[in-house]
């Protein structure tokens, strides 16, 4: 029986130990999986349990483009263009792009809320 040696470096950008483990197992498909699992065991044991239990939170998006803002507000892009040209809705320009801060859109929605009578 021939013995082959393979070395590789795998970087997991998400910092999620389970994702890393599954990636290595997928790469090792066709190799003796038990050997790979036995080598990964000590790595996973040294990983904080919180990293294995839950995925890291992604930062919430703070800005939206015209298409995203229209979908968020449930408006057509044409209506949103009209509101920006009339300065009815808070927005800012970066070059030729019109952008919206999510927090300002949420505040704008709250300011335009019609309260029910009852």
TrEMBL record:
Pfam families linked to this entry: HTH_17 (PF12728)
Query: What's an example of a GO molecular-function annotation for this chain?
Result: DNA binding
UniProt domain Helix-turn-helix: residue ranges: 65-112
Q: Which InterPro entries match?
A: DNA-bd_dom_put_sf, HTH_17, SinI_DNA-bd
Q: Which domain of life is it from?
A: Bacteria
What is the protein name for this chain?
Excisionase family DNA binding protein
In its UniProt entry, the species of origin is given as: Spirochaeta isovalerica
């Amino acid at each position: 029986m021939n013995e082959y040696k393979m070395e590789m470096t795998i970087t997991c950008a998400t910092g999620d130990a389970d994702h890393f483990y599954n990636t290595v197992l997928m790469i090792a498909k066709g190799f003796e999986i038990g050997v790979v699992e036995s080598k990964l065991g000590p790595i996973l044991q040294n990983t904080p349990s919180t990293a294995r239990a839950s995925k890291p939170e992604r930062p919430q998006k703070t800005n939206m483009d015209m298409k995203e803002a229209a979908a968020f507000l449930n408006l057509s892009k044409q209506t949103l263009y009209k509101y920006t040209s009339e300065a009815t809705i808070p927005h800012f320009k970066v070059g030729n792009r019109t952008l919206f801060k999510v927090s300002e859109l949420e505040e704008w929605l709250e300011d335009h809320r019609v309260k029910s009578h009852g």
